[in-house]
Automatic annotation (TrEMBL):
It comes from Nesterenkonia sandarakina. The keyword Ligase does not apply. Gene3D superfamilies: Periplasmic binding protein-like II. Residues 1-21 form the signal peptide. Keywords: Signal. InterPro entries: Bact_solute-bd_prot1, SBP. Coiled coil: none annotated. This is Raffinose/stachyose/melibiose transport system substrate-binding protein. SUPFAM superfamilies: Periplasmic binding protein-like II. PANTHER family: ARABINOSE-BINDING PROTEIN-RELATED (PTHR43649), BLR3389 PROTEIN (PTHR43649:SF14). The lineage of its organism: Bacteria, Bacillati, Actinomycetota, Actinomycetes, Micrococcales. It comes from the Bacteria. Pfam families: SBP_bac_1.
Amino acid sequence: MRRTTRVAAAGLGVTSLMALSACGGGGENGGGDANADAWILTGGGWPAIQEDFDRWNEANEDAQIDTEAIENDSYKGQIRTAVGSGEAPTLIMSWTGGALLEYAEEERIVDLSEHTGDLESRVFDSVWQNGQIDGSTYAVPLNDVQPVVMYYNQAVFDEAGVEIPETWEDVEAAIDTFNENDVAPFSLAGGSVWPALMWLQYLTDRHGGEEVFQAVVEGEEGAWDNESILFALETMQDLGENGGYIDTYNSVTADQNEDAQLLADGQAAMLLQGSWVYSTIHQDFPEFAESGDFGFTSFPTLEDGAGDPSNIVGNPANFWSVSADASEEEQQIAFDYISENLYNEETVTAMLEAGSLPPLADIEDQIAETEDADFLDFSSNLVGEANHFQLSWDQAVAPEVAQPLTDNLSQILRGDMTPQEFVDAMNSL
């Protein structure tokens, strides 16, 4: 990753961390209490992370790590304020992106390059690079990877006589055939908006490469006004207007898995969604999941596109950084936890049993023994072979930018905003 001198949360007019103040973080940072501390999230796979901390504390009586669980929507604001005031927990969790760049720029986190043990050699490079700035490691992954993949209903393809598309030219041909057969080519939960970000990311990356959005993260002037972003927005509007997405896409939501149901019911041939939808299909639509027609593949390549076709998007993982404001004793506890304990055998086993995928290159045999071996192996190869794993844009930008991004994309989906108006609006923030 490149680094600029002005990276304040994607360079989009956000107040500097140094200007923030708060009443405090989770522990006695800098004081006499040698315990380190960490904030974790509630729900999802976080109970497994808490169990990992519990095991660490049982085995390390003199190197305790206190934890506090915070609801996801509240976390971003609270951690940003705590980091800015110098009262952050010892272990700082982030999604990397603009937040990590800002933490490093303001010297609120420490360089971990000499404190990761053999972790770097185990983690896939496409994931590891999300925690690096100028070749130095400022954050390390702590949980599972969630790439965005293309799901499909093989029965719908067979009935229409269509092959699974590998290129964008294949996609365009498939759209025509599916429309002739009165089947929606793609399910999309446009009513929720965020699933459309996956389309925007993949199309932008396939057209112009990872550097396009990296310029946004690094705060380059006018970075949104890029031909690849315009191409992606124009393509998305074309899909909506000319039968690429299901006709009702603007009223379909992901809250109750309506987009997945359209795929399972055969009303749509394909669905671009996160890897978590695999378990959703098995839980909510078991008949389809077990029918032999439930398939998955990578996003198609774009002929003449400048992006690496191995690139993927999604959630590379959550990451740990270590607070520069913690005491030396607290920092050492965090260093030891990172180098000696992350992705230990017990934690990896628990993750795989839950259907989660650690971003590790040395667990092929363990994956092969799971119930979801085919999908986990596919996902692992996807991540392992990726040249670049791009973080979801709504996580990569600052909190105050995420909502305008979603609002403007919603207008793109409804046809109430042109692609050029979208980029102008984003550049103006």
